[in-house]
């Protein structure tokens, strides 16, 4: 008897799982679409609330709408926990934390009113759009890019580390040369200025005024201008490489359940979730 | 009898078509050249009118000159409609709307005087220069570029989408960190700032003032600096690919009537408009 | 008798030619070195004169030094004319005009005192350093680069033309959207702003203030950020191509007289000036 | 007898050498780690001292901590001199000077109190982190990058020289066009502005105000935007080349003593220091 109930519950759980995580069934597509719409609506809401002009006019409507969205997100969050075989895995995963951050501030605002500003974390849910839209045909074309980015990740990290060390060394030097009287008020600010300069952003909120400072800044700029060639060169070469070596990878399949790439042409089951492949 | 008139009219229409759309006959070349000159003149006119110094001196001359150009554009527009076999196709095409926008504001200004400022849409006609100048030898060299851009379009779009999502997430974060008192007056403004920073433009009209804000900004800058490598890598690899795979495509022909590329070496007729090829 | 004088004069002219244009003899090297030093000195002089701090102290010394350099440049200019077989070719060449511009302002300042500021054209002589230093071993490594730049020149020009047209269209649009009250005071200024934005320079002297203006600006920035991929892709692919196709070109010779590249391995005489090659 | 003492001293020196310069033994790793921690601590200390908020509160603690670190650095410096077979080589090497600069300002501050600000040179020690972290697995992936950078160094230098000459020529031109009344106060400042513009940094502390100045600036920007393609193209092509030609180089070994790359697969001894290789 109990077994029967459990099996019934299991069946329901599996069906919810397919709706929430899959995108091949009608209800799965509808769920993805509604989620997309609600996420976008919640962002428009937060944006309008941040503009005093609109907030003063429609404050009450905004509060109600926000609670409706919060309830929707809460139901979705609970369903995601329930239908997962390993709920803890989901709760402590990146997506689990993002989903929680999207609804927690509203509930917390009962106790700590100021915590409501944390609702802007809801924008992180926008990242789900990648997962939702990932299933469109454009994905096939992203694969080589992913391969290239994976191959160049370590090199890019070494490069970023190099830029940071260089910025610290040159930032402290500029602090010495220009000093607090020209806007380089402490070493962290000088390092910030150096990153602004080296990445060619150049706000101009701080800029060198002494001849020596301008000479060093010129040197930093030309160096930064040359350095940009390095990550570009790495990604380009790796991308061309990925393009060349794995032309057959274009014809991969995607697991309908967990959306993992299936590269093995002869696979009958998904290597990730064990779903039977057609 | 009617048939004869129609056939006469057809002949005239075809001749006008060849003059307006073709560039191989003497009159076709003359038309293209005059159009080019008139478009440039109209732009110089609009530019001078926008400068109070000149407008106050020669206002009446400018008004007359603008009407002369408007009449020229109107005649051209009517001829383009008449000589087309499917006039509606032209009217609702991109070029048809651009051509209409170039003359409509002047006529509208009789009823709504303020609409005259919309004359700046005339600058869109400048895009015609691509079509006019397209027939020069330089075009052959653009072909591989077009192929590469077409191949990388989807990837670039995914990338642009990624930048926009990232800007929204990081923009709302900065709104939280810096707040309206440091210039991040609402979320749209913060997102605008984030795009300004990530693309390394860096106006400096808004810039972070808190230590945490500067740290996040530094992170955004280094990320933006690394991200620029991605579209470059894609275009480069695709361009090198197009260069490699289709070396024989350099020797394409161009239809003298509709300027379509003819890749089939044995073609006797244009595959687009059916024009006989020499 | 006259023949003999002429032949003597010819010999002298040839010797001067070798000293001035060649760099293989001791006197040729010495001449190049002195020219390099004098050009650098004249630039330091102009720079110091532009700084009121130094000019007020040593004004008389600066005037004398400038006349000494002008006399040197005048003698050099006359020698260059005399030793050339076709003096007019030199006078109306790019270098001839640059050399004249370097000395003319000083003589003109007798009649028009304000013309002395034109002496800054002397900085153009700095370009001669490329010619002088061209003969160093680094040149061999520049060759593939030159080939790649030549191959991509037309495509880059089409691209620059595209950026300019786009800047005019988007600049006039922004003039309409933002208007003179936000710094976009006329259409040329708006176009200038658009180029500043699209090239990711971003001075911030003019920046959008309306929501629509900021949205269009964001679009321009992302587009400009993507567009930068195009010239990079072209140059990279062409450079890789030049590297691949002509590995043997590294072993070229250089004509000792006119410094032209000699690619033909069997050549006995320079194909440009007819100098016998060793 | 003396021989024995000398040999004992030699053994000690060698052991210290292995600890300081090697990273394969337990003590060697511990030394590297402590050095890393002390360098980071000293930087945090300097940073906090530069911020008046913290310096006013904990000034005495900071002074004591700085002396502790200085003593540590002094001991390390003396050990490095002692354990080297050729101490003078170390003292006058780049690292020797950096290590000296990190401790000298503190001792000098006894005689010249103002010299203490020179302590910021300590940030140069951060470069040691490259050497310390170099031994991690990421290094193998840096090798092709190093090869590509070495191959493109000369070309990049020619390119940097080209940018500098261009900046001088265009900077003096802008000084003439805009003049001191628009912020271009002397020629060095104009050259600085030109580098700021050409590298697309664009602070906006100086910006053109005349129509001609803005036109020239637009030209410089578009040129700078195109020029960035050149170093990127060079590095990319060279990197792709290095990747292609030397795939087997990934499997190099590293000398445990001097951390030189060992490319020869059959080598039994390090070609640099003669250390026996396993």
From TrEMBL, chains A, B, C, D:
Domain Ion transport: 29-245
UniProt KW keywords: Ion channel, Ion transport, Membrane, Potassium, Potassium channel, Potassium transport, Transmembrane, Transmembrane helix, Transport, Voltage-gated channel
Topology relative to the membrane: Multi-pass membrane protein
Subcellular location field: Membrane
Highest taxon of the lineage: Bacteria
UniProt main location, coarse: membrane
This protein's record includes keyword Transmembrane helix: yes
Transmembrane segments: 30-48, 60-79, 91-112, 156-177, 215-237
Gene3D superfamilies associated with the record: 1.10.287.70, Voltage-gated potassium channels. Chain C
Name this polypeptide is given: Ion transporter
């Amino acid at each position: 008897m109990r077994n029967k109930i459990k099996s019934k519950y299991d069946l329901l759980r599996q069906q919810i799982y397919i709706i929430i995580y899959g995108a091949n069934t009608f209800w799965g597509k509808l769920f993805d679409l509604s989620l997309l719409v609600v996420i976008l609506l919640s962002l428009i809401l937060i944006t309008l609330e941040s503009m005093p002009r609109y907030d003063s006019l429609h404050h009450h409507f905004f509060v109600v709408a926000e609670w409706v969205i919060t309830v929707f997100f809460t139901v979705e969050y609970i369903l995601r926990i329930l239908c997962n075989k390993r709920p803890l895995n989901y709760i402590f995963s990146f997506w689990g934390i993002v989903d929680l951050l999207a609804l927690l501030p509203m509930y917390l605002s009962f106790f700590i009113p100021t915590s409501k500003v944390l609702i802007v974390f809801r924008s992180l849910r926008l990242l789900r759009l990648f997962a939702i839209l990932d299933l469109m045909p454009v994905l096939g074309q992203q694969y080589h890019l992913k391969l290239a980015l994976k191959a160049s990740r370590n090199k890019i990290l070494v490069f970023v580390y190099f830029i940071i060390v260089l910025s610290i060394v040159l930032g402290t030097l500029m602090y010495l040369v220009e000093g607090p009287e020209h806007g380089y008020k402490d070493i962290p600010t000088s390092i910030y200025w150096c990153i602004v300069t080296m990445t060619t952003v150049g706000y101009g909120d701080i800029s060198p005024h002494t001849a020596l400072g301008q000479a060093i800044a010129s040197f930093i700029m030309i160096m930064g201008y040359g350095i940009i060639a390095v990550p570009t060169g790495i990604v380009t070469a790796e991308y061309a490489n990925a393009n060349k070596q794995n032309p057959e990878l274009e014809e991969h399949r995607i697991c309908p359940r967990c959306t993992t790439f299936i590269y093995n042409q002869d696979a009958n089951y998904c290597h990730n979730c064990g779903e039977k492949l057609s």
